[in-house]
Amino acid sequence: MDQSMKRLTQFCSGTVAAVIGLTGLGLGTTLLWPEEARGAEEFTIRTTGPFVFNLSIDALETFAETGEITGNFKNYARFLDEETLISLRQLLRFRFPLDLITVDNLSYSPLGRDALTNVGKIFQSTPGVNGFHGLRAAVINAAAKADPEGWTLIDVMREFPTESIDVSVQGLLELQRSLSVYLTYNRAVVRAIREQAAAEAAMETAIDPASLPDLSQPGPISSPAAPSR
Q1: What does the mean pLDDT of the chain come to?
Q2: How many domains does the chain have?
Q3: Nearest 5°: phi and psi at 65?
Q4: Which of 22, 48, 62, 107 could form a disulfide with 27 if both were Cys (CB 3.0 to 4.6 A apart)?
């Protein structure tokens, strides 16, 4: 994976140099400053260092849904090894099963704010500026429009309330690894709880209702003990 990121960074360096050269000739303006903002159709992807590029969310969504590499995603995917592509696709396909009410309440809780602040380091409205506020709005809107299966990071990207999104590739991969650890831990905890509950249920002695006293009948009354002399 490190070698893939190194190759991608080298590619970025060459591309940036070419763009700078074209700009000097007056040919690169539309590459760096498009006349029309794409809004939620495109986002900026950041690898390592100062190198940034535009990617189509549609191409990324196609990759997530079918595994097919299309559009301008081809330029970057060829520098990522198979393991990285698989990890990226798993992350993009993961559905968060949280409804609107849960997301809204969680996003304003201390735990939710901490989580959004951490993820805001990956998804930023402006490079170097935490994307907390835009991310919170995007997550809430994505949850509001989600189907019963939940919402994805693609949904969040489309709901981001700014014209562009700055995304860290390395941050995405780290998020995927953290998510995998969390899911593995979560499944293990749920399995342990279920096994413990089943074991306790098996050890319990069945109670025969017929052996219980009839509460509608008066019970025996003990005679008071004679006072001792």
Answers
A1: 70
A2: 1
A3: -80, -40
A4: 22
Q: Is the pTM for the entire model greater than 0.85?
A: no
What number of CA atoms fall less than 13 Å from residue 165's CA on the CB side?
30
**CA angle in degrees (0–180, nearest 5) for 43-46-47:** 145
Q: Per the domain annotation, does 16 fall within a domain?
A: yes
Give the range of the structural domain holding residue 127, as residue numbers without chain letter: 2-182
Distances in Å between the Cα of 147 and the Cα atoms of 53, 99, 134, 202 are 31, 9, 22, 39
User: And the tokens for 60?
Assistant: 């990324």
Q: Which helix (H) or strand (E) holds 206?
A: none
Whether 201 maps to a domain, the answer reads no
- 91-95 long-range contacts (CB < 8 A, ≥24 apart) are 91/153, 91/172, 91/175, 91/176, 91/179, 92/60, 92/61, 92/63, 92/64, 92/152, 92/153, 92/154, 93/64, 93/65, 93/152, 94/152, 94/153, 94/179, 95/149, 95/150, 95/151, 95/152
Encode pLDDT of 167-212 as tens digits: 776 776 677 666 666 556 556 655 676 677 677 666 655 556 666 6
Residue at 206 is within a domain: no
Once rounded to an integer, what is the mean pLDDT over residues 125-131? 83
Q: Is the pLDDT of residue 108 over 70?
A: yes
H/E run at residue 126: none
Across the range 220-229, mean pLDDT stands at 58
